[in-house]
Amino acid sequence: MAQQQITMSVLGMTCANCVATVERNVKKIEGVDEAAVNFSTEKVSISYDPAKATPQAIIDRIDRAGYEVPVASIELPITGMTCANCVNTVERTLNKKVPGILEANVNFATEKATVKYIPGAVTRADMVAAVERAGYGVVAADSEDALVDAEKEARQREIRDQTRKLWVGVIFTLPLFLLSMARDFGLVGPWSHAGWVNYLFLLLATPVQFYTGWDYYVGAYKSLRNKSANMDVLVALGSSVAYFYSIIVTVGLLGGHVYFETSAAIITLIKVGKLLEVQAKGKTSEAIKALMGLQAKTARVVRGGAEVDIPVDQVEVGDLVIVRPGEKVPVDGVVMNGFSSVDESLLTGESLPVDKKVGDEVIGATLNKQGLLKIEATKVGRDTALAQIVRLVEAAQGSKAPIQALADKVAAIFVPAVISIAVLTFIAWLASGAGFTPALVRLVAVLVIACPCALGLATPTAIVVGMGKGAGQGILFKNSSALERSHALQAIVLDKTGTITKGEPAVTDIVLSQNLELRMKNLEKVGQPVAEASELPVTSYQLPVTTTELLRLAASVERGSEHPLGEAVVRAAQAEGVSLSEPANFEAIAGHGVAAEVDGYRVLLGNQRLMEREGVNLNGLGPKVEQLQNEAKTAMWVAIDGQAGAVIGIADTIKDGSKEAIAKLKKMGLQVVMMTGDNQATAEAIAVEVGVDRVLAEVLPGDKAANVAKLQEEGLVVAMVGDGINDAPALAQADVGIAIGTGADVAMEAAGITLISGDLRGVPKAIGLSHATMRTIKQNLFWAFAYNVVLIPVAAGALVFVPGFPNYLQELHPIAAAFAMAFSSVTVVGNSLRLRGAKID
């Protein structure tokens, strides 16, 4: 094989020694003859034997040497594909014949090629030229929006073209078929057997053969030119045999029956099927189109002190955007002024609106329900959450699921195998003495009934519909493999903080001292209002007697605190609507707590060590503290003027829906495991509360991945659910990583599935969607294989050998074969579309 040249950028080189290192490492690869690095341009030019070395192997070697080769990806909307063999042809062309392409995957359902390539080594124009040389087309456009419009127009143009050709086929085929059948069944006079009638049939059949069916001839030529065979070859061959044999009979070179109605009906029926298939394939990607359609078209921004409406693509980061009630939020941003509730259901799947106040983030394309919001734009254009979601879903839809590998292998040899079976069928029946015409009819039936399209559509249509449905529920799959692996899960590992719990401490209990409670009861017995207790003379000490007042004093001490526990106390007071006082003589006591004077009281807030250090009377609250700790809560003592007034229980509260999600996972038969750095007692208390059976406690951040690996060593297929940076290694280690969408970007990058809403109930939904999608794929593959395995032998005449089978059913007429073939792929696509209404809760 001839040597190939490739040039790629190399990042991270800082000196001449780096240059030598890159050159030396690249030259070590078998098949690389020469490698020259230009330090000034930061590029390496390589001469290599493509039979021994690949660009990906070169990139991997450079990466291992400590440098980086930037790669990019692009989507090419392909036109002209008719079956799985066309997919293989386009993939082979891009992967084998265009230097600089690392990987190309073609999705028959979406009619798109996803290409990973080396920038600078190859251009889009090179890819387009290669695809066109292979006999297919690529939709061209100047921008992403224009590309969407161009794709839509291309599909509509194809539908119009196919519809026009179908009507021509129907107009000529219908009278031809009716007249031919009437003659065969003796329903018309002797004139129908005159020689000129066959010429009339020829006149009616020819427009169908070479206008309605011209696409099949073109497709067959392109396929054979690329040394492959696709569905077009079978249709063109089968209809042509019937058509040209009939011409030979018509001109008198052979005697017998003409089959013009057969050739015309074959083409017309298959055209009906292809038109329905095109329309159905368009529906498979409706979910992603709906997402793209969510984007607002205009935005109201403040420019030069005035409000102006501008196209949304002209909004810049930092612009102040005005969003009125009932309007869509045009871009991602932060609320600078106003309060409202925002409907995020179309992106997150959450049915209830979310309250937004100053400082909260808003997502572009969500709906402002009530108040006026002024937001500062933080992400615009391709950087918005919606744009990223659309790109992620499109990339995932373009990936191939492992289950598709078998269908691809079969499709690669399918057409040559069918042609071989057809020829053998013809020879066998001719040799049996059945005669030339019956043998020919069976040959045509075998060619026409075979359907590689169903094989090619079985997996990608279900993947596209399934992922689109997931996106509408706030569930994003990174690729098809993650979708497929999820249905085989046996164990789910849940990180506690931020996944099961909110990851934010909150006040859960305020336990007043026993003495205070007795005093309150005594006051009530003598008819004294409790609120007046603080005004009564107390011999030993004076205490505020209401929970709210005690919380107000504690929160006043923590006012301005950045400690998570102190912030929790302040938030609890604010939620009660109490006004805080300004603390005096504030003192932070390291490892113990804080002290200050509030409204004349000396207030201490901290742990038991602080109480002991200050000689505070605990007032019998010790057992209450122990009880709170057993419930996995942190106990904060509150002392006033040297006496313990209360204990505040603070805990990381359980997220809404966590218990429900865990119950659903267990109902699915999955083992649910909670992993946390908390001590065993605390972890088990939370596990009991949410219903988790197995706990991995006291796990250090760096050991999370190792614990996942231990579960895998037990033979379990494991999913890891987490949200933090320290969860990323465990997410990558797991068979399926599931990232909570409210967490760190690095966690989402490592995960195969992302839940946009951060609601744990999305996990059983994602697994349920995987089960539904895989069930649909298996149904499709069963139908595609069973259809061909059963009906090809039937078309070949196998029913003749079935004892007692009626004679009139033993021969499958080519028209019936064409009808079956036409609707086989439509059946597969229709079955995939049922996923849109599947219940995955």
Record keyword descriptors for this entry.
single chain; 841 residues; six-stranded antiparallel beta sheet; 29 helices; 19% strand
What does this structure look like?
By secondary structure, the protein is an alpha+beta fold. The protein contains 29 helices and 29 strands. The strands form six sheets. It has a seven-stranded mixed beta sheet with strand order 17-29-28-27-18-25-26, sandwiched between helices. The protein has a six-stranded antiparallel beta sheet with strand order 9-8-10-16-11-14, with no helix packed on it. Strands 19-24-23-22-21-20 form a six-stranded antiparallel beta sheet.
- What share of residues is helical? 40-55%
The computed structural class is alpha+beta
Shape: elongated
Terminal residue distance:
55 Å
Major sheet details = 7 strands, mixed
| Overall residue-averaged pLDDT value | 82
Radius of gyration based on Cα positions: 36 Å
Number of helices: 29
Structure at a glance:
The chain has 841 residues and is an alpha+beta fold. α13 (404-431) runs antiparallel to α15 (452-472).
Task: Write the SSE topology.
Blueprint: E1 4-9, H1 16-27, E2 32-38, E3 43-48, H2 55-64, E4 72-79, H3 84-97, E5 101-107, E6 112-117, H4 124-133, E7 137-138, H5 144-184, H6 195-212, H7 214-225, H8 231-250, H9 260-284, H10 286-292, E8 298-303, E9 306-311, E10 320-323, E11 332-337, E12 340-343, H11 345-348, E13 354-356, E14 361-362, E15 367-368, E16 373-379, H12 385-398, H13 404-431, H14 436-449, H15 452-472, E17 475-477, H16 480-486, E18 491-495, H17 496-500, E19 501-512, H18 514-525, H19 547-557, H20 564-576, E20 584-589, E21 593-598, E22 601-606, H21 608-613, H22 622-630, E23 634-640, E24 643-654, H23 658-667, E25 671-675, H24 680-690, E26 694-696, H25 704-713, E27 718-722, H26 728-733, E28 736-740, H27 745-750, E29 753-755, H28 762-796, H29 814-833
